[in-house]
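[job 4471] stage=fold_predict status=RUNNING
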Amino acid sequence: MKIKNKFGFTLIELLLAMGIIAFLATASVAILGNFNRKQSIKIAHDDVKNALAQAKSYALSQVKSVNCDTTNPDESFREELKGYELRFDLITDPDKHSYALFEICESPSGSNRIKVIDAIKTYYLPDDIFFASDPGPIGFKVLQGGATSPSKIIIIRTEDGSQSTTISVNQNGVIKTDEAP
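[job 4471] inference complete, writing structure tokens
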């Protein structure tokens, strides 16, 4: 008996097609996971770089918050804005790595007072990203824009440490980065 019209696929053809689809799906999930890991360190890198640029911009433009009392009629309490700085790995949450922008005010007696700018929030790194070491505070002087202390910030991933990125700030306040991952 001859079959004149053959419709459909054989079982072997169906299994082969499903195997190819499964292989392609597995490969694409692995590639997408690696892409996501690279993007998380790139985003952290860009966020830290932008926060540094914002601190420098505030210092150059002399942006003052209400925390620095420059208008007090009593000169003994009047403060002068000295600059802005970024501080790293604040202990605001023990499970997260963070950094924040601070305002540096100086009273006439010469004692520095550091206050968080209310308009700027504390930033948190993603869970799998952290600072390789505490670079110390990186500050920018009012009107000069130069850094108070040149520093290097190294951001790495916790899984294997193979992915890292570096941001440097020199004495003149120039923010340089390595090639973003």
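[job 4471] summary: The chain has one domain: 14-177.
[job 4471] exit 0
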